[in-house]
Amino acid sequence: MTLKDILLKLTLIECELDDATNSLPEWNGNSDSRVNIDGAKCELYHLKDEIERCILDEKKDHDRLYNKNTSDADWSSGC
In sequence order, which ranges of 1-79 are alpha helices (DSSP H)? Predict the structure, then answer.
């Protein structure tokens, strides 16, 4: 399983948690459930951020390896 596959699965889990939040009735008896869902969402968001950073870092390393990154080009030679 690749990082992109994991990110897709996490996005699906995020959608399920959103659905769970939206299906809770609006009375105070559900505050514990809402807190638990919000905590799970917070952990999920942090995990997604880490995975996205890893994907970007892998792409950056790949681009540098194959000289595809134009942001590292030497522009000191002028026009």
Answer: 3-23, 31-65
Distance between CA atoms of residues 69 and 27, nearest Å: 53
pTM of the model: 0.71
Q: Kindly state the tokens that stand for 51.
A: 């995975």
Cα 66 to Cα 59: distance, rounded to the nearest angstrom:
11
Helix, strand or coil, per DSSP, at residue 7: helix
The yes-or-no verdict on residue 16 having pLDDT over 80 is yes
Measured CA distances, 67 to 14, 15, 52, 70 (Å): 36, 38, 22, 8
Measured in residues, the chain has a length of 79
**Cα 36 to Cα 29: distance, rounded to the nearest angstrom:** 13
pLDDT above 90 for 39:
yes
